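Session log. Operator J.P. requested a structure for one protein chain; no other inputs attached. Running the standard single-chain path with token output.
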Amino acid sequence: MTQERHADVIIVGGGPAGSVLAWDLARRGVQVLLLERARFPREKVCGDYVEPRGLRILQAMGCLEHLEPSKLLPIARTATFVEWECRYSGPIPSYGLREGLPAHGYLIPRERLDAAMLDTAMRAGAIVHEETAVTGVSAGPAGVEVTAGRGPGTTRYRAQLVVGADGVNSVVAKSQGLSVADPRRTVVAQRAYAVAEGEIGENGVFFDESLFPGYGWIFPMAGGRVNVGVGLLSETRRRRGANIPELFASFVEGLRRHHPRCAAFNLCSQPIGGVVRTYGAAGRNHFDGGLLIGDAGSFVDPVTGEGITPGMESALLAAPTLLSALETGQFDAGGLAPYEAAFRAYFDPSMIFLDYCAAILRNRHLARPSLKALARGCDLAQADAGFARMSGSFFGGQDIQPVGILGQMWARIIQDVLLAWPRFLSGVTRSSRRPSGTSPGDLIEWQAALSRSALSDPLWHARWMIDVQRQLAGLLATAARTRRDPRAVGLLQSSLSPAWA
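Structure written below.
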């Protein structure tokens, strides 16, 4: 039996991006219908970490007040381990610097976070159909038709517009020929929940050669529970023939051996895997009759793989375009193109820089010298709060200034390289367990790594070099247009979403 339902806007997917958009449109009087294939609460592969910009959005929704009573653990400290040695431990450098942002993050399991956000959207007036699996989408300037399996039958939904918020394997994106399969910008991950010895109290991120380019993490929760996982670039997994469950198991064993709080570390859930696609893969996210937001539109940090906050921000950027289309009756791609301009203006200044950094790290031959450089940077950050604030931008920074970062980094690099031979001749590098800076051997190692890359696979190396150069050109062009990071201000104080003012 086929039923038919009508709405102004259909949103496919009830994760953070879909729920924020449903809430924002519904509170403005738009008739919103959200279709979600699962029944909430449901588990989701994720690091579960919500940083200050995301908490600000949850607060504005009135959602955070329903989550905080459940004993969330404020997180304002982090530790960075390189080859299992802690090289930085202290405050998260970018937190507490900007008025209006919390000075901490929270780890909120997605089964709780997503359910609370979806409930907030419903209380705002959005209609939600759970256990509704979308099987087909027909979209055009004249309107949208969505077909979905619901219960024993099929339901046909009609609307003026459709929004894909249905994740990395988006049915909406596939229906419009916008699905992206780029292993260079796809991350595969596995995570589980575990119990440690007491509350760890700080985020831990772990870098070693086995996970390069990627990392392992342990994020704390109240009561000694943690979210533990690993993420690796899909291209690297394929080229190495790496097995993600084996890497995860090895990482857990490493924690037991090396982390002071994890000797009796025990998993309390089954490891589960997932995939995210990062911002470098974001293409044309609008089409006749609709838009893509969240993971469906590749709104994921290229370095950290964090997608909760960017997904929510993409939803807030989409709302004004959808409202304008409903007002003017222009539902074709041209009428929805302002969304493209809005998200590029908002995300490009920071995300293109992060994508450039991620592009360089795609080359596994650079693992050893890169990890040495990371360890050296952590040592500098531990001793210099200013450097910590700047270098911390690479990994979850709240205000990314590419020109300033590159300028300071190159100044440090040039200084370090010029002093390499004097340090070597004076014996400084031999007198300390931790070398005090770059040595001539380090410089040779970089050259050797690049030579091995070129010799082992000349075609891949050439393509990698071209990609890095293309990313650098895009970064410089973006930096020439704007010197500020719009994400530092956010959407609550900007004119992009007027109802937030």
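Operator note: Residues 493-501 have pLDDT under 50 and may be disordered.
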